[in-house]
Amino acid sequence: MTNKTILLIFLSGIFFFACQSSKQEKQPEQFETISTPTGNWQLIWNDEFDYNGLPDSAKWSYDTDGNAWGWGNNEAQHYTANDTANAHVKDGLLTITAKIDSAGGKRYTSARLITKGKGDWLYGRFEIKAKLPTGLGTWPAIWMLPTDWEYGGWPDSGEIDIMENVGYDPDTIVGSAHTKSYNHVLGTHKNGKIYVPDSYTGFHVYTLEWEEKEYRVYVDDQHYFTFVNEGTSFAEWPFDKRFHLLLNLAVGGNWGGQKGIDDSLFPHHFYIDYVRVYQKAE
Fold first, then answer.
1. What does the H/E/C string look like for 112-158?
2. b/e for 258-280, b at 16 or more Cβ within 10 A?
3. Where do the H-state alpha helices sit in the chain?
């Protein structure tokens, strides 16, 4: 056995141990009920990714509808469904992979997972522990969209961005709100930013606490953005209807591709350790 082979085995062992150690940080009884400065929370939905294969079909679906029109952002990827090359679970992690692999007239493939119809909520605390990809052209996101679109199409029914990051600005995490009155098309969108220089080398917990009067966004329980219910109309606060979660890794697009796409860096991997949804305890 060569020294190189021994080194590869050693490094693989370290990665596997790190994944397993992450899982062993808390036993289920330790995170089913949690207390934060904003109150007590009870677990109502979660995926710990403690299985192998495709993402659990009882909890996740694949969103591919927007492939035909670039998702409204001129994105460069084609999202696949039921393809372990783009979304798979192993060693306690969900991995979303963007790769060079032409499909649907696009140069890249990736995955966009949603809980719609399998996890839809009005208010709550949403915790997602993840490690991000990085490099020119990457655009990972953890976010929420309305399930029923009762106030109309985007942005009238709202959008909650828990975590967005673009590869040309890798140390910056962005949390945002989009509504009829506040959105990037009008230049009125509201967001917050936080510096996380190791977002792509280590795992962090990206959290949304969504209540009737406001929602708050955190990284590792550090609060950095609040969007307030002004008490006016749905145009300012459409967040009184049920929403669902999305996890995706886009390539390029109006934001992610502003400084180009570096093909030499592919494939890119977006690692998710767990997703936990809590309800405020009485």
1. EEECCCCCEECCEEEEEEEECCCCCCEEEEEEEEECCCCCCCCCCCC
2. eeebeeeebebbbbbbbbbbbeb
3. 3-23, 28-31, 253-256
Q: What is the pLDDT along the chain (282 residues), one digit of tens a residue?
A: 554 444 443 444 444 444 444 455 557 778 999 999 999 999 999 999 999 999 999 999 999 999 988 899 999 999 999 999 999 999 999 999 999 998 999 999 999 999 999 999 999 999 999 999 999 999 999 999 999 999 999 999 999 999 999 999 999 999 999 999 999 899 999 999 999 999 999 999 999 999 999 999 999 999 999 999 999 999 999 999 999 999 999 999 999 999 999 999 999 999 999 999 999 997
pTM: 0.91
Enzyme catalytic residues: 159, 164
Instruction: Name beta bridge partners: 170.
Output: none
Task: Answer for the pair 32, 26: CB distance below 8 angstroms, yes or no.
Answer: no
